[in-house]
Design a protein that fits this description.
Blueprint: H1 7-21, H2 33-42, E1 50-52, H3 62-71, E2 75-79, E3 101-104, H4 109-122
Parallel strand pairs: 1-2, 2-3
């Protein structure tokens, strides 16, 4: 369902894609909702956009949704699996309403495609 790529491999993929796109990325990961909220808030004034895979928090976290709305940065939501081919409770995303787009179902390529979309949206390409 999620593929075999490790988090380190996905991070390396993002860093390689960022180099090709001539942009900088800052990669952060946490399993704690509050840490993610704090991280999103700290982006303001330091970053131009957000690429986010909130995992199960996608379907449960109003706090992450509100943090994204508060910083008002373009956000692209990504998922390894196609959330619409999974359990019904995964079909709802709190993040989708505050994101410029969503990419799911392409495994680790979802991250690469999401970064490309974000950079294109920002006019950096």
């Amino acid at each position: 369902m999620y593929g075999s790529a490790t988090l380190n491999e996905i991070n390396n993929l993002l860093e390689q894609e960022a180099e090709l796109l001539q942009v900088k990325v800052s990669i952060q990961q946490s399993n704690h909702e509050g840490v993610l909220v704090d991280s999103i808030h700290s982006m303001l004034g330091h970053h131009q956009g957000l690429l986010i895979n909130a995992g199960a928090y996608t379907h449960t976290s109003v706090a992450i949704r509100d943090a994204i709305a508060a910083v008002n940065l373009p956000a692209v939501e990504v998922h390894l699996s196609n959330i619409y081919r999974r359990e019904a409770f995964r079909h709802h995303s709190f993040i989708a309403a505050v994101a410029i787009g969503q990419i799911s179902g392409f495994g680790s390529d979802s991250y690469r495609l999401g970064l490309q979309a974000l950079v294109s949206h920002l006019g950096c390409d």
